Amino acid sequence: MILKCVVTDDEPIARKGLLGYIDKIDFLEVVAECENALQLNRILNTHSVDLIFLDIEMPYISGIELLSSLVNPPKVIITSAYEQYAIKGYDLDVVDYLLKPIPFERFLKATNKVYDIIVNQHKNIERFDYFYVKTNQKYEKIDYKDILYIESVENYVTIQTIALKIVTHATLKSLLERLPATMFIQTHKSFIVNIEKILTVQGNTLGVAKYKIPISRTFKEDVLRVVLQNRLQVD
Q1: Which among 58, 52, 56 is positioned nearest to 32, based on CA atoms?
Q2: What per-residue confidence (pLDDT) applies to 179?
């Protein structure tokens, strides 16, 4: 399993050091680096992120202030030169708190801890092949295998299955965390697709049953890698 991570620190040297550490760990992939918490907030609204490396004292808004405002944030490892924020950090359920300068062995221990937590969460999710969502004053059972795609519309998501369309109050991010990573992929800031239901890939569009699903530039590389890994090789 590859964990997608974001490095957030206002000091270029600190970011460079963390990126060098991450490059040595095979289960980490950097999707963005940010100079401040406002940039991080924009990234979290457009990317699927498993782990944030978060500095605290930054311009505009602190790492702690941003973290306090997030609903269902990714896993967080705080990287700070100030130990006085540790208790507040753990109150916000961060996985670890690393004091600068950070030894690589300590960094590796923290990232291994995150990896174990996320792998175990996915194991628990994948014990079931269905979930329930609330719609029209009732709970509807949805089998993973029946989902074609999921679309985000403001504060709601539309779940298009083979047989029907279900609208529920949720975020795309919360559903992406709930769905098995081996079955579903995000193709756009507003769309998740069942990988097995993809029939065609043409330009920036996926054919899923009779529907056309957009692929954004942000997610295109990941989508093509997943779709084309099972292509027929022709000499």
Answers
A1: 52
A2: 85
